[in-house]
């Protein structure tokens, strides 16, 4: 085997160890991660990565190995001053273009995205790079061209903090060269949109590409009239009706409205259609994704052109009506938050909605004295429709500010006194507002009897949303009779049959919230505890949904659906831990929840910074849950979860090196929380107790993971300072047998010795360690310098030996 083949084999083995290695062998994963970081800093990385991407093997190398190769090339291109670096060799461009053409059909979408990002990074840094790339692009298949055109303008608007070696002049040149091709790109996208009608995935890709170019001002040179009538705007508007691409279409329309002052009028003209075809069905189905997207778009229109809305045209009134229907009152009243928090929110916003009621009463007044032939008052059609649309909002305001306050508001101002004269129009509109609320309450009361007469309806999809909401309201307002034994059994019968009912996750949450309200009103403590345990034991569906995400690969092809499912699953876990984790009787349940989450295949793959970059939402969900667990759970649960906590700490140390800022910050936040809890345990008991104490368990985890922490955490001096403080405290107590100042010294020595030899002069390593460990300067100078040194070393940005 020649040297190149041997290097490829070692690279494949290291990537496999990271992504598929044994869960209980963290040392092997750590060694693989460090070897890969060293390879990325070496000149050999160019050759081995490009050879993998252009390999003629059939079948091709594993997808995760190819993805790693593309990502490694992108990182080397973005860090041209790295050791063994310099500019990218000429063959890299050819290899990336060849790989883009090959894997636009064969590989997973994220592989093509990484290849395209590497090509964009090359174009940014090379003279004539944009022109050369567009000249070669015409020979690529359409899917590859579409992805490359999507990421290319992102280099113009992205945060510059992640790049090195790119000054303002070079970025300005790149922007001008990219924008010169905007007309031809729009023609290309127009042709693609004509063929995207029957292909939802293609439709979404075209919209993503259009969004990237809209953000850099691709229509800035176009006359307003031509822009409003452009076929691509029609394509984006029509895509609002395609569920799979709705979120991207909203982003495109919002960006256009915010940039071009002539577009709000064009959007207003379509407002009645949006209201009838999109908004009203979404409100009826409580489709929060559609509602939130339309609210964002409508608010942008109102902010961009308030004068148009103030003219009071039919379209403007349709916009105002739509926004009223999406009122904040809905979300406060239907919030899943605890009653105390919700009550606080209601009190906070009551003045706002009281003022809104004044405005609505004024707007709903009859503005004419005309009568029909029978002498009846004529109400204009527009006003009559407006009043019909107000019914739901008036009920929400009444519920939010309270019935007494609502009635007082209606009768305020002294107009009921015979001694004062008031316009009949004001009296009429106030009576209308009062009658609408009473009418709605009467309808609700009548519906309750029908719902209770057939509780099995709650499993029917067509009425599950309404019934689950009604059940929660009933349990909140009627807890005094809902906690009777026969009613509790009915509630448990409903909860235990949820899985068979094919309910949406939000409906399940409504039902669990309803049952929890009823159980919390049970006065007998032992009975309440047993009932809560019975409820929680059947609530593992949230964890199972998270594991199902691993099995259902179609979710990963739809980022919006994947993120939504992940958020719901993690939200379910936090119902469990934050609400009941602090209670000793539920400690074992929380531990089992942690075990189930940790065993999910998606969590097991978080073994390198590369995989963390691709799953930032999952990293944040996992580390946030671990933080909640270690903060909220009782001591017994902490002790029982030693192996799980050690695994989570190791993963957090690795995730902290991710390039994705959110993932890295979430991981460092968890480690900081871990160190805070450890320090609190040491301060609480200055003497090291038995192995059964949580402080001992946490200290032992730190003692075993310290070297890995030093090797991975290079972005935050704060975490290293926390660790030094804990080691310093343990030095003066009987905790010294587990964790001490000598421990920190050994870890620092290991971290320095792991640095490539070219970064330190001869004998410098022996000089640095004593300086860093000087107790007089450790918290003010030493650790910040050490953190920055390790950070620069691990990123491969140090060009000369350090002189400390």
TrEMBL record:
Boundaries of each Exportin-1/Importin-beta-like domain copy? 110-253
Would you say which domain of life the source belongs to?
Eukaryota
Q: Which residues form the signal peptide?
A: none
Q: Which GO terms describe its cellular component?
A: cytoplasm
Q: Which Pfam families match?
A: Xpo1
GO terms for biological process, alphabetical = protein import into nucleus
Question: Under which name does UniProt file this protein?
Answer: Exportin-1/Importin-beta-like domain-containing protein
**Which organism encodes this protein?**
Leersia perrieri
């Amino acid at each position: 085997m020649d040297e190149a083949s041997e290097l490829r084999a070692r690279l494949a083995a290291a990537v496999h160890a990271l992504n598929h290695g044994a869960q209980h062998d963290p040392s092997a994963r750590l060694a693989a991660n460090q070897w890969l970081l060293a390879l990325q800093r070496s000149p050999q990385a160019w050759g081995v990565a490009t050879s993998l991407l252009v390999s003629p093997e059939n079948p091709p190398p594993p997808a995760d190995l190819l993805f790693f190769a593309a990502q490694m090339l992108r990182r080397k291109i973005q860090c041209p001053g790295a050791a063994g670096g310099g500019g990218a060799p000429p063959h890299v461009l050819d290899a990336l273009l060849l790989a883009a053409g090959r894997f636009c059909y064969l590989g997973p979408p994220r592989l093509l995205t990484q290849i395209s990002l590497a090509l964009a990074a090359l174009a940014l840094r090379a003279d004539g790079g944009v022109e050369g790339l567009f000249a070669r692009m015409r020979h690529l298949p359409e899917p590859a061209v579409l992805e490359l055109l999507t990421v290319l303008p992102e280099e113009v608007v992205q945060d510059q903090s992640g790049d090195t070696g790119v000054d303002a002049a070079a970025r300005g040149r790149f922007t001008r060269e990219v924008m010169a091709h905007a007309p031809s790109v729009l023609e290309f996208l127009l042709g693609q949109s004509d063929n995207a009608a029957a292909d939802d995935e293609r439709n979404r890709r075209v919209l993503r590409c259009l969004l990237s170019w809209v953000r850099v001002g691709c229509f800035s040179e176009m006359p307003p009239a031509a822009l409003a009538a452009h076929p691509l705007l029609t394509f984006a508007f029509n895509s609002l009706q395609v569920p799979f691409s709705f979120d991207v279409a909203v982003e495109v329309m919002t960006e256009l409205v915010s940039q071009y002052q002539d577009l709000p009028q064009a959007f207003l003209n379509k407002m009645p259609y949006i209201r009838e075809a999109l908004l009203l069905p979404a409100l009826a189905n409580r489709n929060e994704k559609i509602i939130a997207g339309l609210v964002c778009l409508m608010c942008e229109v109102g902010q961009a052109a308030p004068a148009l809305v103030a003219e009071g045209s039919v379209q403007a009134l349709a916009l105002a009506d739509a926004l009223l229907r999406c009122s904040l009152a809905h979300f406060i009243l239907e919030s899943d938050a605890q009653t105390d928090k919700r009550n606080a929110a209601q009190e906070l916003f009551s003045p706002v909605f009281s003022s809104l009621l004044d405005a609505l009463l004024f707007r709903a007044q009859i503005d004419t004295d005309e009568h029909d032939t029978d002498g009846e008052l004529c109400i204009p059609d527009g006003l009559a429709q407006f009043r019909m649309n107000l019914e739901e909002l008036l009920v929400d305001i009444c519920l939010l500010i309270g019935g007494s306050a609502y009635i007082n508001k209606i009768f305020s101002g002294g107009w009921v006194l015979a001694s004062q004269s008031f316009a009949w129009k004001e009296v009429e509109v106030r009576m209308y507002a009062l009658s609408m609320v009473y009418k709605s309450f009467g309808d609700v009361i009548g519906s309750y009897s029908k719902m209770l007469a057939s509780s099995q309806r709650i499993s029917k999809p067509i009425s599950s949303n309404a019934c689950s909401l009604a059940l929660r309201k009933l349990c909140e307002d009627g807890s005094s009779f809902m906690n009777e034994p026969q009613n509790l059994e009915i509630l448990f019968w409903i909860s235990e049959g949820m899985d068979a009912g094919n309910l949406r996750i939000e409906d399940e949450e409504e039902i669990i919230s309803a049952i929890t309200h009823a159980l919390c009103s049970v006065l007998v403590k032992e009975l309440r505890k047993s009932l809560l345990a019975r409820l929680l034991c059947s609530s593992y569906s949230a964890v199972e949904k998270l594991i199902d995400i691993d099995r259902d690969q179609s979710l990963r092809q739809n980022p919006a659906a994947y993120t939504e499912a992940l958020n719901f699953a993690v939200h379910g876990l936090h119902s469990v831990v934050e609400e009941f984790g602090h209670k000793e009787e539920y400690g074992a349940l929380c531990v089992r929840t942690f075990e189930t989450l940790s065993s999910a295949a998606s969590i097991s793959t978080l073994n390198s910074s590369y995989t963390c970059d691709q799953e930032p939402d999952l990293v944040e969900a996992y580390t946030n849950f671990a933080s909640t667990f270690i903060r909220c759970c009782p001591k017994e649960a902490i002790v029982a979860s030693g192996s799980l906590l050690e695994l989570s700490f190791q993963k957090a140390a690795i995730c902290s090196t991710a390039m994705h800022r959110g993932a890295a910050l979430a991981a460092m936040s968890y480690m900081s929380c871990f160190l805070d809890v450890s320090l609190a345990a040491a301060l609480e008991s200055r003497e090291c107790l038995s192995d059964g104490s949580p402080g001992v368990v946490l200290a032992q985890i730190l003692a075993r993971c310290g070297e890995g922490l030093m090797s991975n955490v290079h972005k935050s001096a704060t975490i290293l300072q926390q660790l030094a403080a804990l080691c310093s405290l343990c030095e003066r107590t009987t905790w010294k047998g587990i964790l001490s100042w000598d421990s920190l010294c050994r870890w620092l020595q290991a971290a320095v010795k792991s640095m490539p030899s070219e970064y330190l002069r001869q004998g410098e390593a022996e000089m640095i360690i004593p300086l860093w460990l000087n107790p007089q300067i450790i918290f003010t100078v030493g650790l910040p310098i050490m953190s920055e040194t390790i950070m620069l070393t691990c990123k491969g940005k140090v060009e000369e030996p350090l002189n400390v």
